[in-house]
């Protein structure tokens, strides 16, 4: 029986990809209304390229977009983009419908709960605080804090050590095959994938190598496993 | 008759000091609830000292506060502080009750409107966008953009030049005697002070030196002057 359950944050406890995409679309449409001379799709495509190049934690994507389009930064357009991005983001930042009830269930079964997340420490904590779910977790570790990203074993090993728990008694819940599932398994833990479309190669790998990875379609399926 | 009217932003178009103070108080009380071992007044006093030292545009005041108290940064407390500070700030970020009607009146009289503000460019634009008043202004200039802060004459001269307007045909509206009023007058403009408690020395200086500075008690008093 497991003693500790570790969760990824983004796209595991909340629908990060959907809210980020919607917030970016709204922000760009408002920038277009305010004078950005692009179509909505063209603006979105250009923004995605900038995010791909600079990473999602860089905070000046809109600055670069206006500079690319106009040859100089346009403060009004940047401000319009940022205000609308944040307004929509905060409005949509909610847990999945069954996140809280699942956390309550798992906690009530006596498990210790942790978070292992790739991202910036305060930004990831802010998500937990905004969702109101931070009191569920006994340990929260981010890649920024430890200096290693999932799937590197060190981030899993440090989490287990802080929790005082052995890997074979622990399970990692996440949405990314390599970062969450393979990373956890390589650190000696079990893994459960949620909100993840496995490729046929990944499915074959799990089956051929008999990897300790389960796949669930809803977070509350955890209640039957744990 | 004036042709151009320039406005300061903070504590002139909106009640910045009040919302910032309230937001900080709420944030600190939530941090105390989450484990910060200080009284509300003690926390507020310590935060003010940090803001005084680092400036209000530094974005890691709460990091320093937790480090001062615990000897290390506490991500949960920092996140609790930031989330609550921003929630309250955005809820309270509103123009004064007569800001919009006054801007409409001044605009309808045919004046060109500008902003001259000490602060970070995108942050100041964000306030105008959040208040929904950015379309009133023909020119917005920040100290970050020009590299000089009010009361330095260069920030006034650059604003006048961009507006294509002579100083003697222009008036500056602000809440700070030295930065807004003296700065504008030294650049050859008129000045109107609002939301400002003048010291007796400042009153005497205006009277003795016959400075072109008027004082109004409500923003809408501008309608009688302009």
Quick description:
The structure is a homodimer of 226-residue chains. By secondary structure, chain A is an alpha/beta fold.
Instruction: Look at the structure and name the CATH superfamily of the largest domain in chain A.
Output: HAD superfamily/HAD-like
Largest interface summary: A-B, 19 and 19 residues
One letter per element, helices H and strands E, the order of chain A comes to EHHHHHEHEHHEHEHEH
Indicate the low-confidence ranges of chain A by residue numbers. Answer: none
> Structural class given helices, strands, pairing of chain A?
alpha/beta
Helix amount of chain A: 40-55%
Question: Could you name the key traits of this structure?
Answer:
alpha/beta; 2 domains; 11 helices; homodimer; DNA polymerase, domain 1; Rossmann fold; six-stranded parallel sheet; 226 residues
